[in-house]
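Weekly modeling sync, notes
Attendees: S.R. (lead), two postdocs, one rotation student

Agenda item 3: backlog of single-chain predictions. S.R. asked that every request posted to the team notebook include the full sequence so nobody has to chase files. The rotation student volunteered to paste the first one in as an example of the format we agreed on. Action items at the bottom.

Example entry:
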Amino acid sequence: MSDIWIVFAIIAAVIALFIWDRVPVIVVCVGCALALWATGILTIGQSLAGFGDPATIFVASLFVISAGMERSGVTAWVGQALIDKSGDSRVRLIVFMMLAVAVLSALISVNGAVAALLPVVVVLAVRLNRSPGRLLMPLVFAAHCGSLLLLTGSPVNVLVSEALLDSAGRNFNYFEFALAGIPAVIGGVVIAVFLGEKLLPARASKNLPSDLSRHAHTLVEQYRLSAEVQTLRIAEESPLIGKERRAFDLSDREGLALVSVREATGSAGPGRRDQLQAGDLVVVRGDSSAIGEFAQELGLFLVQEAEGTDAANNLFNRDSALAEVVIRPRSPLIGDHFFPGMVTPSGDLVVLAIQRGGQDLTAGTALEAGDTLLLQGTWEAMETRLEAAEVLVVDSPELVRRQALPMGPGAQTTLAILAVMVVLLATGLVPASVAGLLAAGAFLVSGVLNVDQVYRSINWTTVILVGAMMPLSVAIQQTGAAQLLAEGLVNWVGDSEPRVLLAGLFVLTAVLGQVISNTATALIIIPIAAVTATQMGIAPEPVLMAVCIAAAAAFMTPVATPTNLMVMEPGSYKFGDYWKFGLPFMVYFFFVAVFWVPLVWGF
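Predicted structure, as returned to the notebook:
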C-alpha cells in the first residue's frame, strides 16, 4: 500500500472513531500521531513535533488568559452590564446578549464566553418570564460568530494564520479576521431577532444553572445578619493608627467579632500596606451596644448608610468571601465546640453564624453532622481551607466569585495585561505564541492566577488534539495526499470560477464539523485547501478564510461543539432544534464564505 493510501486509511479511521465517540478524543489523536510513525510515514520527531508547535503553545496560553478574565471578574462585569442594559425588551436583550458573547468569544474563547454568560442569560429569562430555550441557542451561535472577530477567537484561527504564513509568507493579522467576523455577527443577530421566536422552542427548562448573582444577600438574609454587621471608620485621633492589621484582635471582647479590615480606598491584593491609617474601615459583627462601646473606646465612628454599604457588601467584596458549609458525616469536626464570632483553628476564617435545622446556635456548642456554618475570610484563605474533607461546600467560592463579583481582585491588572497582549498581536512585534506566553506569565507573576489554577485552566484535551493532529497535516502534504486531493478538486472545479472551489471546501468542512471537532476538521482540510489554491494559481487568503468560516459554522448538531451541548439541557432542546435554527445560520455563513470573502481577499 502506498504512503498516500496509508494516510487516507488513517484519516478514515480517525473520523470513524470521532463519530463513534467510544474512544477518548486524546487517545484517538495520540494514536493517530503514533500510527504515522509506526507506518513509517513520519519520523518520531515529526510525529511529536506538534506539541512544540507555536500554534499549540498559543492555544494553550489562550485558556490561561480566559481563566484570568473569569477569575478577576471581568467576565462577570460583562454579564452585569448585560443585565443593566437589556431591560425588559426581547430585542434589546438578544442584541446586547449576542454582541456581548461575541466580543468575549473573540477575546477569550467560545467555551469561556458561553460558560460565563450562560447563568446570567438563564436568570434574565426567568426574570422576564421567557423560556431560556429562546435565548440560549442564540447565545451559543453568537459565540461561534464572534470567534471570527479576532485571531484569539478560536484555535482554528491560529491554524489558518499559520497555514497562510507557510503558503504566502505572511500571517492574517490580529484584527484581519474581523473583516469576515463583523458581517457574521451582524447577520447572526438579525437572524436571531427575526427568526428566533418562530424556530426556537419555548419548552419548560430542567436543571437550570444556579443563579449566584445575589449569593451574599441570600446568605445574609438566611442567617439574619443584616442588623449585626456594622462598618466603622478609623478617626484621625484613634489609638489604632500605626498598629499592624494582622495584630488586630477582638477575641477578648464578648459578643464582638472582627469581620474584616479594609483600606479607605478599598484596594486589595498582594503587597498592600499592613499598618492601619485614618480612614480605614473596620467591619465588625455583634450587638449594637457592644459595637458602640468598642467604637467609643478606640476612636471609631459608624459609617452612615449613605456613605457605606449594606451587610452583604461588607461581608462579600473584593477583599472578603462568604461560604456556607455543611458538617459531613464522620467529619473530624464533629464534637468540636464552635460559636459565632470565633476564628477557625486555621486562624484565617471567621465563623459568622451556625445553624442546626434552620435554627441559629448562639452559644458554644458541639458540632453535629448536618450543621451549617457561614464562614467569612479572604478569597485565598477560603479557597485553600475549603479543599479539606471535613466539610461539604454548598456553593464553590470560585463559582460564586465568577458570577457575583464583577471587576474583583486583579481586574485592573487583567485589563492591563489584555491591552498589552492586543497591542503585541496587532503590531506583530512578537510572534503570537510569544504574546500569549507573556500574557499567561503576567497573570501568574501578578498573582491573578497561581500555578495550580494555571494548570487547571488549560483544556488539555484541546491542546493534545491540536498537537497530536498537526502531524497528520504534515503527512497529508509530505506524502502527496494533499496534492492528489487538490488535483481532484481542480479537475472538479474545471473551468468554473474559484467560488465553486470555496463552495466545495465550505460544504466539506461544515459537514465534517457537525460530527467531529472543528479543530480536527480544520487540521485535515487546511493543507488540502492550501495546495489546491496553489494548483489553481489563486491567492491562498480567500481559500483559507473560507475554511475558517466553515469550521466556525458548527450549528446543526448538539455534538458539534462542547458549547452546543452545554445549553441542551437548560434550554430543553432536542436534536432537531439545532438544525432548524442552525440552517439559516449555515446558509448565511455559506454566503459570507463564498461571496463576501472574495470581495475582501481577492483571488
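Discussion: group reviewed the output briefly. Confidence is low (pLDDT under 50) at residues 266-272.
Action items: rotation student to repeat for the remaining queue; S.R. to check formatting next week.
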